[in-house]
What does this fold into?
Amino acid sequence: MATASALVTTLFLGGYRAPLPFTMFAGLDQGYWGILWFVLKTQVCIFILIWIRASLPRLSYDKFMDMGWKYLLPSALGFLVVLAVMKVAQTHNLYGQPVFWACIGITLVALLLWAIPWPQKVTEEPEKPFDAFAGGYPVPPLAGQSAATESVVSVETATEMKEA
It folds into this structure.
């Protein structure tokens, strides 16, 4: 947490420089004040991280991975594509072209149609009876399963299993 907070302080919070209201005073951004500001910002970040960790429920690792692969990565790639299209359109001055806006509209309609949860046809498979001896070892049926009335395992194979 300390390393992450120090990185956040360095990259996003100005590092050793004084926070915004204190930059108006000339002496508070020089000398040893930089070390004090860095440590203070790092401690505030640690406090916020501990506070968030204690307040929010703990999520399992598989839920984080699921969220990352299903939502965060595709949205980041989509955002990257949108930024690239905007940069190309700005460079080539395409914002005034009706063809550009038609392509944008068709893309948005296609994305909306893709995002709509369409009802899927459910096919019912006939339920096979549960065979408790299918693997050679008797297993009780799960909830919703019914045991087969006759066993598939013959008497010969049962005696062979006992002998082995």
Remarks:
- Residues 61-91 form the longest helix (31 residues).
- The mean pLDDT is 83.
- Helices lie at 2-12, 33-55, 61-91, 98-115, 155-163.
- Residues 61-115 form one domain.
